[in-house]
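The instructor's notes for this session suggest beginning with a concrete chain rather than abstract definitions. Hand out the sequence below and ask the class to guess, before any prediction is shown, which regions might be ordered.
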Amino acid sequence: MNNKFIRIYEDIAARIRTGEIEAGTLLPSELDLSESYQTSRETIRKALKMLSEEGYIQKIQGKGSIVLDIRKIDFPISGLVSFKELAKKMGHRAKTYVKVFEEKKVDQTLFKKINFGLNEKVWEIRRVRQVDGEHVILDKDHISQRLIPGLSKEICNDSIFEYIEEELGLTISFAKKEILVEEPTAEDRELLDLEGFHNVVVVRSQVYLEDASQFQFTEARHRPDKFRFVDFARRR
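After discussion, reveal the predicted structure:
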């Protein structure tokens, strides 16, 4: 059948997710896989191509297909990377759901948390990030309407950074970040799959444009098992 390669892809992907096939190991050769699944090498090639596109394996010339560690996603600490850019490495394993998209004014409570003016109009956004069928990140954003006009729920579901840079023609320059470990809130418990987890990793970011204007305050709340925060450090 034409979709046999999909069933092979799903079988191998499931075995990688459960750890039956360990990260860092090489998959059997195309010939061995074709014999194991009793199918043609062309069908195996299609399954391997799909596994590569979905971020399960990396093909290495002269060696074969090495299994990637899908349990954790690398988040650069010093870099400014959108979730859409990270999701490209995961293929269709990652999805975004916009739970809240509202216009509001900065009140006294919000004023104490973010570096925006009192009564300034902002977009309030809540997005849940799903990876491998599990809700593992809650992104809570406040974005200046004055600096970033025209936002929509559809843009938030795709990529806010891409809209700012490609549609508005603005340059996102730098961010100040704070990383903490906290107990999950009631909202975390409601929106994320946290059964068995007693902490979340919280990354709070103030994000600035090229002229040093802060346009965004983000609080990203991560389930701790899925993410690895990485950076490159040099001794001065």
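Then share the key points. The CA atoms of residues 175 and 207 lie 4 Å apart. Residues 4-18 form the longest helix (15 residues).
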